[in-house]
Amino acid sequence: MALNLGKRPVSRLRRSPHAEPARTPEELRARLGREKVLLELAQRRSYAYDGIAMGATPALVVLPETTEEVVEVVRFARQVGLPIVARGAASGLSGGAVPLEASIVVSFTRMTRLQIDPRARRAVAQPGVVTARIGEQARPYGLAYPPDPASFRTSTLGGNLAENAGGPLCFKWGVTGDYVEALEFVDFEGRVHRLRREAYDLVGLLVGSEGTLGLITEATLRLVPLPRYTRTLMAVFAEVGQAAEAVSAAIAAGAVPARLEFMDQGCIRAVEDYLRLGLPREAGAILLVETDGDDPLMVEEELSWVAEACQRHGGKVRVARDAAEREALWQARRAISPAIGALRPKRLNEDIAVPRSSLPQVVRAIEALGRQYGLQVVQFGHIGDGNLHPNVLYDPRVDPEEKVWELLHEIARVALRHGGVLSGEHGIGFLKRDFMREAVDAATLEALWRIKRAFDPEGRFNPGKVLPELHSGPGPG
Amino acid sequence: MALNLGKRPVSRLRRSPHAEPARTPEELRARLGREKVLLELAQRRSYAYDGIAMGATPALVVLPETTEEVVEVVRFARQVGLPIVARGAASGLSGGAVPLEASIVVSFTRMTRLQIDPRARRAVAQPGVVTARIGEQARPYGLAYPPDPASFRTSTLGGNLAENAGGPLCFKWGVTGDYVEALEFVDFEGRVHRLRREAYDLVGLLVGSEGTLGLITEATLRLVPLPRYTRTLMAVFAEVGQAAEAVSAAIAAGAVPARLEFMDQGCIRAVEDYLRLGLPREAGAILLVETDGDDPLMVEEELSWVAEACQRHGGKVRVARDAAEREALWQARRAISPAIGALRPKRLNEDIAVPRSSLPQVVRAIEALGRQYGLQVVQFGHIGDGNLHPNVLYDPRVDPEEKVWELLHEIARVALRHGGVLSGEHGIGFLKRDFMREAVDAATLEALWRIKRAFDPEGRFNPGKVLPELHSGPGPG
Predict the structure, then answer these.
(1) In terms of pTM, does the model score above 0.90?
(2) Nearest chain B residue to A457, by CA
(3) CATH of B25-107, one of 3.90.1150.10, 3.30.43.10, 3.40.50.300, 3.20.20.120
């Protein structure tokens, strides 16, 4: 499948009616329509933050509805020399959608066209489509779109593509990029490309590039037949290490659960205080596990392997008896983010991924670091992939931010020391950019910069994100 | 999973002991060892061809055994200004491994280290490992490596990575790139990179790039649990269109066969003449279908959906009763290439992929073209993906080559006209390079050239392959 070189004209779109780019914000506004170009400070201010960080107030905000309008914005940005920061629902957790300087923020929230082609098992979606809508629209045809980031009821496809988002289902079903068959994107000159996965795989390059290479304006997504049966269990452990050991044992026994989620004690208590679901406040850790498939006996058998592994490692197992119980368990998982957000005024989170075999040591080491720094750290994540989200909770009025950052850096080092990686699914954005120099070697960083320059020679797209500067200058000359 | 930024030093290798590159072939030979650098014409001649095409005799041939030796070769090539053409088993079918000018051919056939880590479900392999060996070594642990190009008993992993090879299993199980977790590669300056799939996905970019961006020296591959049960059937049809219709119907009924292969009459007869398996010589088409899974009832049920769809479209179905019958059916499939090779002195093949819904028209249109040109065309392929391999068989003593190329071009146009693509899995190489201009738009071709220049600014790696020149010059300046 090296080279799928289909017939795809530069654009099926009508040519932009304007030969010259707009030269002023007012001219752009006249072309696109008043409601699509926000110039007032009060409006612009709302586009300075994402789910975790605050940035610079954008110079202007554009809300395009079509690819042609995105082209207009890119040409305008070139004309006036402003950077472009793409933005969806802004639920991201690494500062990826946050402008760092006076910029044009392109908010894709009005590009919400979605078509399902059940025969071809395919969805064609604009970047502003809310993730959950894709699955909802596919379900009547017996089809599913598996990627399910925790924020999937608010996050948009464009952001998921930018971060190559995963979710609980990613252990068995893969991440966003695994479902992308084709992309439309607008390059730095305002040219529209329609790409399939091919020589060289430009689609794969754009997915996960956090808006630094171009603007994705449409994606063609693969849909899969909905598994007919699912079974869910919750296992309660006295100690976090036991939960990690149970996970390793279940997978070694041959189980490939569709979801495999972990919460530590801080997390359990936060959710329980938030939702009153009756979770065991004294437990050291909880695992939530789901198996799925088309054969009820197999699904049941696979769940029993997991249950046995949990019991062997000291877990108390409760299997959801019906859809309502199942939904309650997953409700707990989805509530983690708002629940821990309610504990302290601020939080910063990690997104490390480590080999499953080192999970017990890593989880314990991070707990110990939290105690050492005197800061509350809660941990949860997609433990099947070894993907953990340690969150540092703090109050900026009493906890010095430097101490928080130092702790985060120490947590990242625990991951790297155990053969892990900095980001499982949230991306680098600007919050983790400084860690990059410790995570990639100089030769590879240069190769990454070469890609950046090949796509974005003028440094137009999302400057200051992902790649740390090579030397003292702004990237290689 | 946007950015998995693990700790990976430039190299775990000892530093090359030579500060300066070798300056003559003799010096390179002295450093690497006599048997690893071939200078004699008689030896070099054997490295001018691949499975389908003949090229220029290489200036020298190097058979490295380690990554350090590959680094030596790249530094030498830079020093003397020669291009580098990577080569594995040379079973490729698009001229990808064929040198077009005086070049250094790097044959990876001696880099055959293979380690299986059953706990991590992972194989670490050098590029010279024969594809089939990976599965053979994994099987004792209950694990499989699914990518199975027809040539997998001779082809090497390096070639599979270069072409992002598929095979019969790709409809359900995916292609080579879907199993790559990490790569080691040597860049144009002779620097060693160790990459995981991350921001930007350089691994995904190198896979399928046909040796034009760098030299892959090691791959870390994901292994999967072996499905416990498989069932195979053969369905015989009077006419090719019926077979194509049965495929669509079976998939619409919910079947996701592990393999789904198609042979037309010319193909059936060629295999029968070659192997005497008792295939029906009068049949218009044969489908070979395999379902797999961990539950015997489900596997059986899925096969029955396929059987019903075949019968509804006029097919006569025979289910393999045991492993021996199953093996005989797949033996027929694997014999296609040598069998049709025996029919005429030469052949050139296409690798088109079209939407399943247009398969009946496409197959019939290609049959008609063969009759119109008075050339024998046989068709087979992974019909589940709509991936067809029309082969034009000819005798260069009587059939003018221009006519053959004209017919190939017409076949490619049939595919493009039906919304298809030029290459499902064999790559572009140089045989299909001229078709690229019709398949990709100018803006995307420029973007592909930008990637090429970012990785290979000196045009060292496999020149003349994949990308047609942009204007009259050798790529953008």
Answers:
(1) no
(2) B450
(3) 3.30.43.10
